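Hi team,

Below is the intake form for TonB-dependent receptor from Fibrisoma montanum. Please confirm the fields before the structure is written into the shared record.

FORM ID: S-0412
PROTEIN: TonB-dependent receptor
ORGANISM: Fibrisoma montanum
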Amino acid sequence: MKTVLFTFILTLAGLSAYAQLLEVRGRVVDATTNQPLPGANILANGGKGAAANADGVFTIRVNAGETITVSSIGYDTQRVPVPATGELTVSLKPGENVLDNVVVVGSRSTSRTVLNTAVPVDVLPIRTLQRTLPQNDVNQLLTYVAPSFQSNRQSSSDGTEHIDPASLRGLGPDQTLVLINGKRRHTTSLLNNQGTFGNGTVGTDLNAIPVSAIDRVEILRDGASAQYGSDAIAGVINVILKKNTNQLELQGTTGLTQEGDGGLLRLNANYGRGLGKNGGFLNLSAEGYIRDRTNRTQNHDLIIFDQSNEGYFFAYPFAGENGADAAQSRAIDDRILQERGLKRDDFNFQVGDARIRNANVFANLSLPFGNGKGEFYAFGGYNYRNGNGFGFRRLPSDPSQMVYSLFPNGFQPTTGSDIHDRSLAAGVKYRLGQWQMDLSNTLGNNRFDYTVGNTVNASLQERSPTSFEAGGHAFTQNTVNLDFTRYITTVASGLNVAFGGEFRAEQYRIRAGQEESWRNYGLVTNPNGTVENPTGLAGGSQSFIGFSPNNAVTASRSNAALYVDTELDVTRRWLVSAAGRFENYTDFGSTFNYKVASRLSVTDWLNLRGAISTGFRAPSLHQQYFSYVSTTILANGRLGNTGFFPNQSPLAQALGIPELKQETSQNYSLGLTLRPTSRFSLSVDAYRIRVKDRIVLTGLFGYDPFGEPVPAIQTLLAPFEADGARFFTNAINTTTRGLDVVMTYNAPVGTGTLNGILSANFNETKVDDQFNIPAQLRGQEDVFFSPNERGLIETVNPRQKVNLTLTYSIGKWTAALANVYFGAVTRNGFPFGVIQTFGGKVVTDVSLSYNVLNNLSITLGANNLLNVYPDVQAYENSYFGVFKYAPVQMGMNGAFYFLRANYRLAVR
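The structure came back. Fields below:
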């Protein structure tokens, strides 16, 4: 296969010939106002590009007679033949329809738009949307405008409170590849492990990119393993950074929930400056925001039991499930609290969004050289995030976790985060004859450190600190790419060829915390080697036990890849594309993935398209080497310590847990695009994604499926201070089926313009009934892959999401109305809770913008205007009634009201 690929590449290379380049100087203007359009994109065949400066002027070197493509967000795209004089003016007509914009992802040809690609691609004009929409970070913006994308903030879930997991087409966060300017973005160092969506996966933190730095986001809703990386099973998200020059844009947003919490103050800025006379630029962005916590707990009713002979009280949230009168119980509670000099705040729970402090800087640089034949480029940034969330409240009724001299009434620990995210990409593009070469290096690092506060190490009793440095983890990725592209006009109706290679090195680290954060000082080792805890006191910092030296690890691997990607216009109406990618991992061997796609233009307004592809995702370093003991709800409904252990550990081997292997996938898609008029368009795409040997977390070994301890396994776990153990396994095969629909319409209404988008995703993931379970574990299917884990894959994300957005602009006013329907979700509380379905909900967003001046606008609006909440949780699933709402669908904060100001200034 490798011989065939190289023969094909060399044959194509032999077709290249040098052509005389013509320097073109042009200007891009608004067709209605004749005002310049700074930042407009100019693309030529083979990937050559330029951007218009503040005067709308651009310079580009292209072949004589070539056709260039000119586009700008909010305007209809034009294809313009280059005149022999090399001078031209391009007038773009305004239009919110972005379907004509040239797309970068999904095709390495420079002439593909949303409607004529062979696979579905969404183009989301973030620079326009973020001025008026209520959402304030990338994850939330995409959730409310892209039906196939879903992200939701989590509560009381350790690190997952601070980095939001996200999904494309219902698959896992680690099955979507994220690019910036077409270059691979690193993942985080966080492995989600607290029973939220994406449990056991590692995602990419899109919120580490400032919204003010983004021009648009392209979402390729199709498998792209053969094109961009074998792990792109669900698709690709490509973030395109701004290129505008000689302009300063400032934005300020403030807001508050209807409950009076969750206050937001967000400031961002973007500045672009032209460099040289050949279209070079430096674009800088900065963003900072403060988001206060929210609290959505059940009523804090208490029942206090006098246990004066032991010196403490029992305290429980009021259940109200046995016919007790809530008002009467509250009155009794108040009397008992008053007698003891206590107040309700001494027993309050905090459940909601974590408090976040976030600072971001980003840069995008381009420096053309060699009379337009070459370009040096660089981009990257730094993000710092400090978060403060809450763990489960420790009640004074559990003496094993208490230090009564420090917290006589119990305590609710806090989980603090310090997250540093760094990235830098640099490269050179150069035209070699008719080939465009691109050599780049992309470096990324994510570091996450934990601090646990308002807590104790019970085994130290009164000598315990109340704040602990609990250690952390880090992930570093360095990627080198060498790519070649060429468009050949003499083959059929045009052939675009791309090929290249990639080398990627990765490192994952876990750092131990201070000794008091992880050690149990009450453990005793017997002469026979067994370990006992005669005091019965819990060790480590309660809520989040620190990483111990046994968890500390440094692991590395590398990956090398070769690919070829071709697109052939067999005729003007028939496009065929094929791609192949060979990859070799130092830890998981070799794989070859392919993709074949086609688009047939039945008429000028009707296209049919379809694709078949394969994928391969090697287990992440996190999944291979993560180990940790943490506090969670055990199978019997009480709090306890459970451990995550590597598959190569003695414990895993003793239980018969097999070593990890790669996931493989097959993707099928079939769809159509329809555009009978310039005002209306429709795309419909069906898909089926089959994933074999999908990596998931097991259930809790140490207990049977119904919560009863298994003594033999408990004995194995005792030296690790854990009550139960989880492992990663290739336990299941899944099939995902779905349908994407996107409909757009725009028309003049009165003296204004109405734009409408109706989009929907219908999606279902099913786990095969037959598990990939080793023979020695047969009979433990509900532990090997628990019903709870099944629910996190099959039903925790909405199976339907429908978005209707209407925007009306007239004069200085713009009004927007959006209704998003989030379908029902089901959570499985197995084995100690109940299965509960949360009904579908409609969230209504509104905003009204007014241009006070030509360069100043004010926007007032609301997210979730009607204050819609998820269904109230069943008592059995709510930790004694504390967790009134689960963070499902659209979250649990209710209405959020905001005020935003945008200011733009031309800067010379």
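SUMMARY LINE: The longest helix spans residues 326-339.

Thanks, M.
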